[in-house]
Amino acid sequence: MSESRLPVLMYHGLHPDAHGPGFDPVYSVRPRDFAQHLDWLCANGYRTVRLDQLQDPLPEKSIVISFDDGDASIRTIALPMLRARKMVAEFCITSDFIGRHGMVSANDVRALARAGMGVQSHGRTHRLLEDLDDAALHSELTISKHRLEALCEREVRAIALPGGRGGSRERDAALRVGYELVLTSVPGVNRGASLRDCHERITITRDMTMEHFVAMVEWRGLAPLAAQLRYRALGFPKRVLGNARYERVRSRLLGSVHR
Fold first, then answer.
1. How distant, in Å, are the alpha carbons of 121, 134, 145, 152 from that of 155?
2. pLDDT tens by residue, 126-180
C-alpha cells in the first residue's frame, strides 16, 4: 500500500441546529451538508470502504467515513443517507454513552452492524487515554471493545482515540489488547507507512464550505496546510495547560462565542 492514499473523514453528529444541549457546535454538521458531501464523493468516483475491507493495493479513490462518540443522529440521519447511496461508514462509539439521552441505544448499535456498517471503539468513558494510569487505560480499552463486540457480534478491530490524543504508550496498549488500528486526529490522508493504522483523519466541522471539503479530500491547496499548522499550534497550549485545563478553557471560549 506504499503508494496508495486513504482519506479518513471524521464526523461527530448531524444536526439542523448547532446549539443542541450537550453537543459541541463546532462538530455539529448540518444533515444537508452531509448529504452534499456524500453526493460529491459518489459523483467523483470515490468508493467508501470499511476498515476490514482494506486491500493491497487499495482501489483508487477509496475513502473511509468515520463518526466518533455515538450521537443518536448516526442511526436516525447518517445511516439512512448512507444506505440510500450504497455507502458504508465506521462508527466509533464510546461504550458507556450507549443508552444515554441523545446517544445511540444498544439496539441502534446492532442495527448499524446489521446494515453492514463498521462498529469500532471510542473508549469506554471518553476520558483522554494519555491522562490515565496503566490500570485505567487497560480498562478503557478492554471493556469498550468487549461490550461493542457483544452487541454487534463482530470483532472490533479499531479504536479512535478520545480527543484524538495519545502517543506510543496508548497505541502499544491498544495493540496489546487486540486492536489492530489506532485512529487519531492528525490531519492527513494516510499514505505510505501511515496506511498501517489509518491514524490520519480529516476533521469535518459545521463551518466547512463545500470548496474546503473538496480541497481536504483531494488534499490540495492551502486548506490541508492550514489544518496541519492549526493542529501543531494547538499542541502547544495542550502541553502547557494539560488536557483537563485546556478543555475547561476551550469550553468557556466556545460558550462565549456561541452563547
1. 11, 24, 8, 8
2. 999 999 999 999 999 999 999 999 999 999 999 999 999 999 999 999 999 999 9
* Residue 238, in any domain of the structure: no
85-89, long-range: CB within 8 Å, 24+ apart, which pairs?
85/38, 85/39, 85/42, 87/38, 87/41, 87/42, 87/48, 88/48, 88/49, 88/50, 88/116, 88/117, 88/118, 89/48, 89/64, 89/65, 89/117, 89/118
Q: Which three cell numbers stand for residue 206?
A: 459545521
Segment 183-218, tens digit of pLDDT: 999 999 998 766 667 789 999 999 999 999 999 999
Say which CATH number the domain at 180 has: 3.20.20.370
Does a structural domain hold residue 255? no
On whether residue 173 sits in a domain, the answer given is yes
How many domains does the chain contain in total? Answer: 1
pLDDT tens digits, one per residue of 33-89: 999 999 999 999 999 999 998 887 889 999 999 999 999 999 999 999 999 999 999
Q: Which domain holds residue 16?
A: 8-219
Reduced to 3 states (helix: H, G, I; strand: E, B; else coil), residue 150 is helix
